[in-house]
Amino acid sequence: MGLTASFGFHLLTASLPLYAASLGADDAQIGLLGGSVASVALGFRAVAGWWIDVGGSGVPPLLVGIALYPLCALAYGSAGVVPLVQAVRAISGVGVAFFSTATQSLAVDLNPPERRAEALSLYGIGHTFAQGFAPSAGVAVVQAAGYRALFGLCVVVGLISLILAWPLRSIQRVPVQGRHRRVFHRAAVLPGILLVAIMVPFGVSFALLPVHAARRGIGNPGLVFIAFAVGVFLAQLVAGRLSDRYGRSAVILPSMLAAAASMWAIAGLSGWWLFAATALCGVGIGAGMPSLYAMAADLAADDSRGAAMGTLGVFHEIGIAAGAIGGGFIGRAAGLGEMFAIAGLAPAAAALLMVLRRR
């Protein structure tokens, strides 16, 4: 279910920026296209966490989130101008908020604390596969049959995901009592700040890397996301276990350094070397993100973990939005290469902050 839902969403990751560009969008507007998802999602992540705690189940928001994916895909076919495409993409951010928060909460609830980071890493493998292969598949569909065929495929995949998720309605946990209900959880602030830094490279990559790769000599720019997925997958195989065994910081700090180095490599490399740089970005994000979510879950009580996941999700989307929207404006003013170099400063600063804090 998670694999098919993520696959349907990421079929548009590389194709939608190119679609917007074909309608006349510039770099800033393309950045806004990617950032609009995160901007809307950050406003609904905490709502999703509150809903999970109050209702005692992550399944209702999960189903709502999945249902929004095919509805938005259906609307793209009628959105023939850039502002309408941006508006529909923004609405899909509600689906991202509900789907992501619910699945992360379920992954934490269904596994013991001593294997929390490993569980989140394993859960992310399906999402990683979708991030890696769906973008290039989407571009291939467009090249073979056009954008309307791609949007129709997204609708079909979304409906299949909804059917697969329907039996999960039986999963329940004890609802939070009224006096404990919260939308924002303070335990998620520290891991959230670090998550913002590592999601900036993610935001700039998924919003602007397809355009950058096309300008640097990659025929199918969606292929760079396969390299990203390979990096994430390799990191997820080992990072979760290392985090559970040696502590969260032992994994988070190297992941920040890898993310920073990848941005600087993407800024300076061309052609096929971009694949190596993008894979390094995947290693950094694939190692760091599950450990940061596990850290937030460690710091939250059992009956408020949904709020912690939702709050951390807000920081997650802030990082993506800052990278995508800010990167678009910086790219228009200074060039995409320079923009990627600047994006690397965010995880580098977070790594320095971790080192100074430990001392």
Explain what you see:
There is one protein chain. The chain has 359 residues and is mostly helical. It has a single domain (2-166, 187-358), classed as Growth Hormone, Chain: A (Up-down Bundle). Helices cover 81% and strands 0% of the residues. It contains 14 helices and no strands. The longest helix is centred in the middle third of the chain and has 30 residues, at 116-145. The model has no long low-confidence stretch (mean pLDDT 85).
Structural class: mainly alpha
The CATH superfamily appears as MFS general substrate transporter like domains
Q: Percent helix among the residues? A: over 70%
Largest sheet report: none
Number of helical elements: 14
Any idea what the CATH architecture is? Answer: Up-down Bundle
CATH class: Mainly Alpha
Tell me, briefly, the overall form.
globular
Rg (CA only): 19 Å
SSE sequence, one letter per element:
HHHHHHHHHHHHHH
- Average pLDDT confidence is 85
CATH topology: Growth Hormone, Chain: A
> How many structural domains?
1
Approximate strand percentage: under 5%
Poorly predicted segments: none
